[in-house]
Amino acid sequence: MDTNNNKVAVIGCGIAGPAAALFLKRIGWDPVIYEAATTHDDYAGLFLNVGRNGLRVLKELGIDQPIRSEGFEMRVMRFRNGKGKPLGEVGHMEGEPQGYTVKRGYLHRVLRDEVIRQKIPIVLGAKLVRMKNGNKGAELEFENGRTEAARLVVGCDGIHSSLRKCLLPDAPQPQFTGLISIGGFSKGVKVPFVPGVQQMVFGKRAFFGYIVQPSGELFWFGNEEVKGIPTRKDMLAISQAEWNRRTAELYKGDDPLILDIIRSTQGDIGAFPIYDIPPQPTWHDGPAVLIGDAVHATSPNAGQGASMALEDAMMLTKCIRDIEDLERAFTTFRSLRHERVERIVRYSRTLGQRKYAANRVQAFFRDTMMPLFLKSANKDSHSWMYDYRIDWEEHVTQITGALDKDG
Description:
This is FAD-dependent oxidoreductase. It comes from Paenibacillus ihbetae. Keywords: Monooxygenase, Oxidoreductase. The chain folds into two domains: 7-74 and 103-174 and 277-356, FAD/NAD(P)-binding domain, CATH 3.50.50.60; 176-275, D-Amino Acid Oxidase, Chain A, domain 2 (2-Layer Sandwich), CATH 3.30.9.30. The chain is built from 13 helices and 19 strands. The protein has helices spanning 16-26, 52-60, 65-70, 104-117, 162-167, 232-236, 240-250, 256-263, 293-296, 305-322, 326-353, 360-379, 383-386; strands at residues 7-11, 30-34, 47-51, 72-74, 76-81, 86-91, 99-103, 122-123, 128-134, 137-142, 147-150, 152-155, 175-186, 197-202, 207-212, 218-225, 270-276, 284-285, 288-290. Helix 1 (16-26) runs parallel beside helix 4 (104-117) and helix 10 runs antiparallel to helix 11 (326-353).
């Protein structure tokens, strides 16, 4: 690496961006994070799961303990129908947790605090609009008129990535899964705290899930099937009064506890359309590469989005560290990652499709078959997902044929 030109522009300050910046600094690069938002909002979004595979990446960065301390252990998911009939459970109370559930903003803050501690610059209000390849890297232009040059660019700016649009304008576009996710945080509902257990309900019209924190605060979410292709802007245009009316209708006739939880929501009900991204044949162009949701966004049903972003940041850095030529490093990175992430995207979408039943007949067969499905799922420990490990000390060797971007 030319130590006189080792600046890396990291686009996005969510989860993948700070993690990539921290790893890249470790191997001698000078990262700068460019974030489109003008302020850090630690209360944006709802909550997410960090699987134990993602925790291992945070442990390598030395910042896993705050997540373990603050988060809710994920061990068992208990399922019932809207009338309260138990359908079974998946998971095990013993052994290592599958992961931890934390507020999204908290994970962002933990990562960002470490970035600040290591004196990695964060530039706010920097929305990328153009990128072109230069002689020794990339030239970047931002919406506010700012221009920058960098030898390496890492796109971590999410499912609607500005960098992806610049690099790969003909790439497959995000696809709506047919579901929206609603959720919030509730207090004052008398629900017992059960360590390690998430409660999942197949209602008549929509799916509902919740966990209870030791403090008594509840994290809840619901999934509703909708027509059309809604956007986040569409969701924000709906008033809170309408969301209250809509959720009351959605869970009418189901376990009354569901509406008690929703009515006790502190603050707004959040609503988000659920998208994922079809397989992308190309993950990079020139000195720029995409990671995380920018290139393989998955729906939240499998709880692996954050962990995939963290894994990407670590694996990409290893490839750059061990393979001198960036082109070869990028293509090796994709070769090492694409099968795993595409499998998780498919698996997560399949889980989403099982969450709703269009009529009573489908609901009957779902409730009849679900115990068998959950019993089978318990035999498959999902070790392929949770027990995946990246060894920082292990050397990466260029994979034969990695220069074929479409392979």
